[in-house]
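PROTEIN FOLDING TASK:
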Amino acid sequence: LILIGASLLFLQSGHQAQTENDKSSISNWAEDGSTAITTVLIARSVSPSEVENVLADAFRIVSYQESIIATRHLSKSLSRCNTLLDSTTVTVDPFANQSDSFPNRILCDVDRKQGNNYVSVRADFLLFARDKTVAAKISSRLVEANHVAQIEVVDVSEGPKKIWNWILRLTESKLIGYDYVWMADGDLLLRSLNWHAFWQQVKLLRPKVFQPSVIGTAPGMPDTWHPVLRHQADSRVLA
């Protein structure tokens, strides 16, 4: 699926071993449409210029747990299936169709039980504030929005290096209870991702290491230096 920015996700090995012999595994969920819960910890470094973007992402994703909002987002995605299925070419423009509701063949398969990943994939956030001002600002906003339980901020001004904080703070004990850990840059737009369709593909394919492909914020704008991560305009199998 498509995302504005760059990131990396890992399957928690302990959870993989647990679910391989479990009839309610996430691969089975993709087929039977049950409501098994998948959990993900999203870890992001936050600089002063990234505060508003990171908070907007976090508040948007946390809001998916409200059934009315979850239903609305899924309905919007499904409503765009005709654009894909009626296309005379193999490509669909994510800019014209909005990447957060961008359709794909799996989502548009009328014979597949959908479930709703906006509800069944639950995310918590671990935000590494790169200076004290950022930490204070985020903490204040979290209290105002009443999202303290799902969004944790850590002042890492003493050691703001992103990779160092991933190694130091994403410990085994911290990751207990999560199926996936997502290490994401603070300048990408998680809210640009079709949350339902993305996790639909993850549950079906079950990759151990993965990430969405990347587009710029507008046509012609920079996306990523890594060609393999750029969105390929081909929706014959997975968009």
Summary: The first helix runs from residue 13 to 20. Residues 1-6, 14-34, 235-239 have pLDDT under 50 and may be disordered.
